[in-house]
Amino acid sequence: MKLLQVYHADLVENGVTDYSFEQCMADYRLAMFLPLNHTMLGLTYLDFSKGRGPELAAVILERTAAILQDHKVKDLFDALAGN
What we know:
Order of helices and strands: HHHHH
Low-confidence stretches: none
Structural class: mainly alpha
Number of helices: 5
Number of domains: 1
Oligomer: single chain
Radius of gyration: 17 Å
Distance between the termini: 26 Å
Mean pLDDT: 85
Shape: elongated
């Protein structure tokens, strides 16, 4: 959180206007969706015929789900959709 606050302060100090910390935080949370995209793409390259492929896929999906849950990305999408 501290790093995000410093980042936002830097943006403002360098001329970014009309960009609240709340908007910055929402954008950051929305960007957490990217690991899911990367995960899905990465999983297409795994060899599931070997013992470690499914195990690695499970760990990657578990960690990606944790990122999305920690940052409450679903709540953000619901808010953007008006739900």
